[in-house]
Design brief:
- This protein is an alpha/beta fold and 420 residues long.
- It contains 20 helices and 8 strands.
- This is [acyl-carrier-protein] S-malonyltransferase.
- It is an enzyme of class 2 (transferase).
């Protein structure tokens, strides 16, 4: 099965009517909009379907609307395909949907955080004279050099988004943006001012970042069940402990989206699915030739996806035909994880013997809720003995649960309870 990355767009991707078709046809999408409306005490469906572009574009409206749309499409995709992604990533605001998909945050908490994030960003924008500029076809080093040259005294200019090899967004004070725009005009480098309310992802958002740091401290973040790529580093988070600070840093740091796509390609992930309004991330992926990008918001791409990836029922039939079950999946994880235990006797007792018990269960072939629980407990013993980290164990057990659809066999199965 192809490795899949899930991508979530950010502010600027919104449009009037986004999600309306699926809202009418799909209860999962409908219920997500209803949940968002209840959490925020405002009609998110009406905001997305019936407001004006001017209203929807306002930061306080756009961010909660896009998050709702992103999560609605993710939930619809997950309900149909049930695939554990090999990685998730979101562009700026989109990172919060990625954290919901990786089970770091509940949707409710993500909505509340994003509501505060949007408010603080809007206030910071209103209190500073900021602007943003898209630069097309310029070398990254050259853009950084001109940002440094233009930043003198109270004038601030900094890279805001490394979107693709040929597209960089810069952000800063109006006088700084005007100065750097003149540099690029003189060099005949294509550039365009963006219609935004502030200098996002720049030092002018520091006040917002300081207040957001206090707000985010109130929330509990779980360990991700799959790799989540940070906007700030372009690399997967090492664990929940570093996510909060990097989300704060994100407000004043450039979005490393090109580096995010580099990571996806380097991990041999060949399919990237954009879950959210429009197809901006699909378009940005055009330079990463090894990655096929689709947008779930486009009907043609949804149809193409169904030809590329098995849905839940097709996968269940395939597993049955190929005799893929919880036993041999646990065995595969047991042998593919690295051992850090040099104690030969402990390894024999905690890894070899449980593996032989797994093998016996597989040979017997009696897949029931009880025997599945036995297999999972044996794998847990093996992973503990081999010194596999808590973070990796979460991802490994979620991989098993996803590939054999454990929730159809053990209705109350919980990876977090198993791993502890």
């Amino acid at each position: 099965m192809r490795k899949v990355a899930l991508l979530f767009p950010g502010q600027g991707s919104q449009y009037i009517g986004m999600g309306q078709e699926l809202f009418k046809l799909n209860s999962v999408v409908n219920n997500t909009f209803v949940e968002a409306s209840e959490v925020l005490d405002r009609d998110i469906a009406k905001l997305c379907f019936e407001s004006s572009p001017e209203v929807l574009t306002q930061t306080e409206n756009a961010q909660v609307a896009i998050l709702t749309m992103n999560v609605a499409l993710y939930r619809q995709f997950e309900s149909e395909y049930g695939i554990m992604p090999s990685a998730v990533a979101g562009h700026s605001l989109g990172e919060y949907a990625a954290l919901v998909a990786s089970r770091v945050l509940s949707f409710s908490d993500a909505l509340k955080l994003v509501e505060q994030r949007a408010r603080l960003m809007a206030e910071a924008a209103a209190n500073s004279q900021g602007a943003m500029l898209a630069v097309i076809g310029a070398d990254e080093a050259l853009v950084k050099q001109y940002c440094e040259q233009a930043s003198v005294g109270s004038t601030v200019v900094a890279p805001a988004n490394f979107n693709a090899g040929d597209q960089i967004i810069v952000s800063g004070s109006v006088d700084g943006i005007e100065a750097i725009q003149q540099y690029f005009d003189d060099l005949n480098i294509k550039n365009q001012r963006l219609r935004v309310s502030g200098a996002f992802h720049s030092p002018l958002m520091q006040v917002a970042a300081d207040h957001f740091e206090q707000e985010i401290a109130k929330y509990t973040f779980a360990e991700p069940v799959c790799p989540v790529i940070s906007n700030v580093t372009g690399q997967a988070y090492k664990g929940a402990s570093e996510i909060k600070q990097l989300l704060v840093d994100q407000l004043v740091s450039p979005v490393c989206w090109r580096q995010t796509m580099d990571y996806i390609q380097q991990e041999c992930i060949s399919l990237a699915l954009e879950l959210g309004p429009g197809s901006v991330l699909k378009k940005l992926a055009k330079h990463h030739y090894a990655v096929e990008a689709l947008s779930y918001d486009l009907k043609a791409d949804r149809e193409h996806l169904s030809a590329l990836v098995m849905n839940r029922s097709e996968r269940a039939q395939f597993n049955q035909e190929q005799n893929i079950n919880v036993f041999n999946k646990c065995m595969a994880v047991a042998v593919s994880t690295r051992n850090t235990n040099d104690d030969i006797e402990a390894y024999e007792r905690g890894a070899v013997q449980p593996y032989n018990a797994l093998k016996a269960l597989n040979e017997a072939g009696d897949v029931t809720a009880d025997t599945a629980q036995q297999a999972l407990s044996l794998l847990k013993t093996i992973l503990d003995t081999k010194g596999v980290s808590h973070h990796e164990q979460l991802q490994r057990f979620n991989q098993v649960a996803d590939e054999v659809q454990l929730n159809t066999l053990i209705t109350d199965f919980s990876v977090s309870e198993l791993v502890g």
